[in-house]
Amino acid sequence: MAKRILILGVGAQGSTVAKRMNEEADVAEIVCADCDPKAVDALVADLDKATGARVDARDKAGIVAAARGVDLIVNGLPLAWHGNVLDAALEVKAHYQDFAATDALAGDWIESIRVLYDVYGPKFKAIDRTAIVGTGSAPGLICAASRRAVRELDVCETINNIVFEGVEAKRFLPFWWSPVTALTDMGERAYAVRDGALIRTEPFDLPIKRFYDYMGLDAPVTLTEHSHDEPVHYWFNRETFFKGVKNVSFKYGGAGVEFAKPLYRAGLLSKQAENVNGTEIVPFDLVLSHVPPAPKYKEEIEAILEEGLVTDTGCMVVEAYGKKDGADVMVEVHVFAPGLADSFARAGLTAEMYLTGQGGALFTKLFVEDRYTQKGLISSDMLTDEQVDRYFELAAELGIGIRTEIRRV
């Protein structure tokens, strides 16, 4: 039966999913909802299966009204409103998908994720529905790649998730995604797993260097600790899905990291108000006011390309260390995806928007194909091997591929 889908939040991620689902024969209707009617109208005008709705995420009743009769809610809203959307999905008995785990369900982020698994999981199972969280590029695509890597091991000791964003414009543009989210993550102590325990590490700490011949660079790149979802999810799921992994890190590098590092060390990513020469300021807000937003409109991206790029490269790599047939083995899964110029040529998007939005749409496609056998709430690192394989089959059609390398260490 053809599906009805509610896309809640029509920013870069939500609009990309809507456009992809508009191409699906098994999708009957896409309800595009946002608090910004202009954004909704612009998206609906481009889609032949779409209808529009104005929804304020603070109003759960409004979400419920827009969601009546849909099979799936795709939540592209800020994390603060995820509780309302989860509750609305339960009320209308819809499946649920989002791009990152919310931090707004308990006193801190770890407990919020625990609530997702332990409270919302049984609730979705009770109505025979699937909720999946963390379905962008990272988390999301990289989690599927991590599951693919661990498959090659009998026992897993260490997983490193590595992302280097090497797309750099000639203009001042440190971030290709939300600057407020980027700078917030840069200023937070990172999560990591050490000897089976979830710990916090200092931002920009524990640097590693990596060099991959496909990046077109002359020297290794530096990657450091960064606050991200993956180590937390893998820690929760270490026994069931990651063969007892003891150590997990998320390592990140690129122009945005190099921009943010001295700001952090100078205290300029602090969100605490300070008195400076008689004026109260919040350092974070001051810095943010001087950082341009990430480009999202076609004409903006085209202008950046016309000005020229410094580099158009990057990498996403999973390193998994462990035992195979008694030997010490390292598995590398390299993810290959279009750069900025290629992403714009394919879809009028930046490389970040392409990988995150298209990567998210592939998880939606699995819903449309009825591939999810799990009932309850899962994160994107909890896919079955069959779901992972189908995910990467679909990804290849979008120019997103993987290469797996296995060697003794």
What does this structure look like?
The structure is a single chain. The chain has helices at 12-21, 37-45, 60-67, 82-92, 109-126, 141-150, 179-186, 230-236, 238-241, 255-265, 283-289, 298-307, 340-347, 351-368, 385-396, and strands spanning 3-8, 27-34, 50-54, 72-75, 95-98, 130-133, 155-169, 190-194, 197-201, 208-210, 221-225, 247-254, 274-276, 279-281, 309-324, 327-336, 376-379, 401-408. With 409 residues, the protein is an alpha/beta fold. It folds into 2 domains: 3-98, NAD(P)-binding Rossmann-like Domain (Rossmann fold, 3-Layer(aba) Sandwich), CATH 3.40.50; 141-349 and 400-408, Dihydrodipicolinate Reductase, domain 2. It has a 7-stranded parallel beta sheet with strand order 3-2-1-4-5-6-17, with helices on both faces. β13 (274-276) and β14 form a beta hairpin. α1 packs across α14 (351-368), α6 (141-150) crosses α15 (385-396) and α14 (351-368) crosses α15. The model has no long low-confidence stretch (mean pLDDT 96).
How would you summarize this macromolecular structure in one to three sentences?
The protein is of the alpha/beta class and 409 residues long. The protein contains 15 helices and 18 strands. It is globular and about 50 Å long.
Q: Please tell me the overall pLDDT.
A: 96
Distance between the termini: 50 Å
| CATH second-level architecture of the largest domain | 2-Layer Sandwich
Total separate domains:
2
* Tally of helical runs: 15
Could you describe the largest sheet, including whether it forms a barrel?
7 strands, parallel
- Low-confidence stretches are none
Looking at CATH, the homologous superfamily of the largest domain is: Dihydrodipicolinate Reductase, domain 2
CATH class category name of the largest domain: Alpha Beta
- β-sheet strand percentage: 25-35%
Strand order of the largest sheet: 3-2-1-4-5-6-17
Would you count the extended β strands for me? 18
- The shape is globular
Output the structural class: alpha/beta
Approximate helicity band? 25-40%
CATH topology of the largest domain: Dihydrodipicolinate Reductase, domain 2
Rounded to the nearest angstrom, the radius of gyration is 21 Å
